[in-house]
Each structure stands twice: as C-alpha cells, then as structure tokens.
Write a structure and sequence with these properties.
Number of helices of chain A: 6
CATH class of the largest domain in chain A: Mainly Alpha
CATH topology of the largest domain in chain A: Arc Repressor Mutant, subunit A
Strand content of chain A: 5-15%
Helix content of chain A: 40-55%
Order of helices and strands of chain A: HHEHHEEHH
Largest interface: A-B, 26 and 26 residues
Organism (chains A, B): Paenibacillus taihuensis
Distance between the termini of chain A: 39 Å
GO molecular function, one term (chains A, B): DNA-binding transcription factor activity
Protein name (chains A, B): ArsR family transcriptional regulator
Strand order of the largest sheet of chain A: 1-3-2
Keywords (chains A, B): DNA-binding, Transcription, Transcription regulation
Oligomer: homodimer
CATH superfamily of the largest domain in chain A: Winged helix-like DNA-binding domain superfamily/Winged helix DNA-binding domain
Chain lengths: ~110, ~110
DNA sequence: TTGACATGAAACCAAAAGGTGTCATATAAT
DNA sequence: ATTATATGACACCTTTTGGTTTCATGTCAA
C-alpha cells in the first residue's frame, strides 16, 4: 500500500520549501498553474516542475479545464509521513512519553 | 525556537532514505560511526557525511568517547514536522473532515 | 480566422547531493 | 616505542536538482 508510483516519494516532495509553499497555497483552493506561479519569484516552468514532483508523490491532483490545468491538494500521502513520525513520537519529551519511559524503563 | 543552525533543516534531513535508516538504527542505541556504517553498503566517509547533516538538523547529537564518536538520536526537531503535518491533518479522509468539507462546501 | 492565453516539452546550466579514495591525527593496545 | 583503530578532512567525480529560455500546441476571444 502507498507504493510510490513515480521516483519521488512524499519525503522528497516536501523537502523543498517552495513545494511546501505550493501545498499551503492549494489549501482549500484548486488553482491553475499561472495563478500558483504568480506567488513565487521563479518562472512558471519551474513551478510546473515542482507541481509534477508533487503529483508524482500523490500530494496534488490535476484536472484539465479548458486551456488551463487546475491543481488541488491531496493530503492522503501525508499519512505515510504521519505513521513514520508516529514511530518516534514515544521518545518525545512530554508527560505521556515520560510516563511510558518510566514504566518501560530499563535504561541507566 | 527551532531555528535551523546550519543550512540543513529537518525536512531535508529526512528526505534521504539512508538517513532515515540511520535514525531508526539509533533508536535506543548510542552508536559509534563505524558501527553505524557497518549497516550500510556505502563507505564510512559517506555515512559520516549523513551524520553531519542529521546533526545540523539537530536529529542526532555526538559525544566523543576516547577515539570514537558516538551518536544518539534526538527526536525533538521532529516536533516541527509534527506541527507542519498537523496543519493538514484536518483535511484527511475521516468523518470529521468530511463533515467540514460538506459544511464549508462551495465547489461545483 | 486571427490573435492572445495557458501549458507542456526540450535543451541547457550551475550548484548541490551523494559517493569515493587518500591522508592526517588522535587514541588504544602490545 | 610501535602498531592498529576510529574518525575527520580533503580533493575529486557523477548524478540530481532547481532554474532558465525557447518553441510547439491547444483553447478561448474578437
């Protein structure tokens, strides 16, 4: 499940700050490429490439409407990130994990 | 808070599969460089570079013990990832988000 | 039908990423 | 003292990344 179709996975996709900005932009709003690229100091083509990488990771979906291609956010692949994170969550410094470590404790 | 000291942040640090493996290896175990690199098909030097990147992101801490340098996991920076993820969590496919989207809906 | 948009595709580029091998240095061990 | 170990520091190489510019194509508007 969640087999990454392309060569880009979700970890790589969100590594770039611009791509994270794009995702935030698409929150609640389906947007065409030019509207998206209007928010960045880089060329439309560069934004288009970022969008393709996000699409490969499944984080956005495209829909062609007339002469424009509209992109929308797809959060489902973030589940993988969530579960990855979940593995380390028990080591965090908070009441619950502190309790856990106390109970399970066998360290120095 | 969590100001990234070096040029590598946590998003970039976890983008690489090898580095994620290193983090998993260090779970519960402080390890010297050679012991870590023994788990990978790449050279010790390469592993060392990965460790430096992880250290820049604050995900590992080093401690010199005699002639070896031991690394241990530091999960605190993952909090940033967690809160980033948290922003999108409300859009996931579950009862609550479905209800939200129904209420706020103004799409075709 | 003639332009004006919106986008994708291709060729190209500089810099960063991920590796390698070699060498220097500090610390054990004999 | 001498040798072996553990690691960091360099120099170097190849591929990937993030960008650019230019050109082709499809679609909407006059």
């Amino acid at each position: 499940m969640a087999l990454p179709s392309g060569k880009h996975d979700v970890f790589q996709a969100i590594a770039d700050p611009t791509r994270r900005e794009v995702l935030k932009l698409l929150t609640d709003h389906e947007m065409p490429v030019s509207a998206i690229s209007g928010h960045f100091p880089i060329t439309r083509t560069a934004v288009s490439k970022h969008l393709r990488i996000l699409a490969e990771a499944g984080l956005v979906k495209e829909r062609k409407v007339g002469r424009e291609t509209r992109y929308r956010l797809e959060t489902q692949p973030l589940q993988e990130l969530k579960s990855w994170l979940n593995y380390y969550e028990r080591y965090w410094e908070n009441k619950l994990s502190a309790l856990q470590r106390f109970v399970e404790s066998d360290e120095e």
